[in-house]
Write a structure and sequence with these properties.
With about 120 residues, the protein is an all-beta fold. The protein is built from no helices and 11 strands. The strands form 2 sheets. Strands 2, 4, 5, 6, 9, 10 and 11 form a 7-stranded mixed sheet that branches. The protein has a 4-stranded antiparallel sheet with strand order 1-3-8-7, with no helix packed on it. A hairpin with a 4-residue loop joins strand 7 and strand 8. The mean pLDDT is about 95.
């Protein structure tokens, strides 16, 4: 069993930065790939970034490539999403998840956090 709690969301101006954290509990956290997804009002949940179980491989959606960075800290059981050069279209609720499947596919996730709101003003 893995519990996930996101934090770090908020209101920021366009061009600004935020760091999202996803704190995980559970002894098997290390064995899961982790991902960040986001969902804007009226839209489907979309993949943002993923990292494999070892932290050695990452993947990003084209819309955030070069601006966002995902990482994981095994000592702290935490996954981070550093978001730079934020745009109004990045506004959404951001969710972290844990999966033993393809981390780019939401359907295969085993666990989800409750989400954290990110709002980017123009």
């Amino acid at each position: 069993q893995v519990q996930l709690v996101e934090s770090g969301g908020g209101l920021v101006q366009a061009g600004g930065s935020l760091r999202l954290s996803c704190a995980a509990s559970g002894r098997t956290f290390w064995s899961y790939a982790m991902g960040w997804f986001r969902q804007a009002p009226g839209k489907e949940r979309e993949f943002v970034a993923g990292i494999n179980w070892s932290g050695g491989s990452t993947h990003y959606a084209d819309s955030v490539k070069g601006r966002f960075t995902i990482s994981r800290d095994f000592a702290k059981n935490t996954v981070y999403l550093i978001m730079n050069s934020l745009k109004p279209e990045d506004t959404a609720v951001y969710y972290c998840g844990a999966t033993r499947n393809n981390y780019a596919v939401a359907l295969g996730y085993d666990y989800w956090g409750q989400g954290t709101q990110v709002t980017v003003s123009s």
